[in-house]
Design goal:
The chain is α+β, with helices and mostly antiparallel strands and 294 residues long. It has six helices and eleven strands. The chain has a five-stranded antiparallel beta sheet with strand order 1-3-4-5-9.
């Protein structure tokens, strides 16, 4: 019987192995709901009693109810499973790890509700992945956003403005343009809006036919800031930070050193930043990429 501490440890192991990584393969024997697609990035893992939920960057959630005999295991790729294959209910594979759920009483998927996608909230915006999309229309929608005080990071995920931009692209576009994710929507100039839309469209279209989403070909991680919290920015050397923001608590990655364009003097947010505890700061400072080279 999995107790609360057991599922908590399992969720921690899943978080370490999967969070921030693109999924290579997904298998399930009795899944209720649509399966996650290869190439999507798993953003977070949560546990509630005997329930474990995994959330991808397109708001798809995998919910597993372990009940009495269910369990999650994490293996390195190629490692022999400790339970028989016929007890497998879900298997999630990334570049280096395979997470397997055995004997779960329930495995189902659903999408996090997003009121902004409801017809009553307005039409869905143009899709940036389509080559015939009028990017000028997207620029106008961005410049005329009804809530001028909204954060730019939140506006970029609003489906009424543009479709096709997920959390990875949002973070990478803002870094590429040096824009503060906390900039107000009404502070954007036409030049800023054009650069955001053009960069986002280029990134989305460049990755349409690749399983692994890459935004920086000159960096081994493939990303400039996404998933690189605590590491040094390749442009200015400042430490990349991360923070869950917005109604769905999507994890935002950004560099406070060089993403200062349109940065408000006071962010005016109650979101919690990275852990300010001295022990946490000392740990981050001791990471190889944060040490000063003499």
């Amino acid at each position: 019987m999995p107790d609360g501490d057991t599922t908590h440890r399992a969720a921690s192991a899943l978080r370490t192995a999967l969070a921030g990584k693109q999924m290579v393969r997904f298998d399930a024997t009795c899944l209720v709901g649509p399966p996650p697609q290869a190439g999507r990035t798993l953003e977070r893992v949560e546990s509630h009693g005997r329930h474990i939920e995994l959330v991808w960057d397109d708001n798809l959630v995998l919910h597993t109810y372990l009940r009495w005999s269910g369990s999650w295991h994490v293996y390195r790729r190629g490692e022999t499973w400790r339970k028989p294959n016929d007890q497998m209910r879900v298997a999630i594979e990334v570049a280096d790890w395979v997470a397997v759920c055995f004997n779960a009483a329930l495995s189902e998927t659903y999408r996090i509700p997003d009121a902004r996608r409801h017809p009553g909230m307005g039409r869905i915006g143009p899709n940036l992945s389509s080559a015939d999309t009028d990017l000028g229309l997207v620029v106008n929608l961005l410049l005329s956003y009804p809530d001028g005080a909204a954060r730019l990071a939140d506006v970029m995920l609003d489906q009424r403005v543009m479709c096709g931009v997920g959390n990875v692209v949002r973070c990478e576009v803002l870094w590429a343009r040096g824009l503060s994710p906390f900039a107000r929507a009404d502070s954007l100039t036409e030049r800023d809006a054009i650069s955001i839309v053009n960069t986002a469209a280029t990134m989305v279209r460049a990755n349409m036919h690749h399983e692994r989403r890459i935004t920086r070909h000159d960096h081994k991680a493939g990303h400039a800031v996404y998933g690189r919290n605590g590491q040094r920015c390749q442009r200015c050397g400042e430490t990349v930070e991360c923070r869950p923001i917005g109604p769905h608590r999507r994890v935002l990655y950004w560099c406070p050193g060089c993403q200062d364009h349109l940065a408000p003097r006071c962010e005016g947010t109650t979101e919690n930043p990275m852990d300010p505890h001295p022990a946490a700061q000392a740990y981050l400072a001791g990471l190889p990429w944060n040490r000063d080279v003499g």
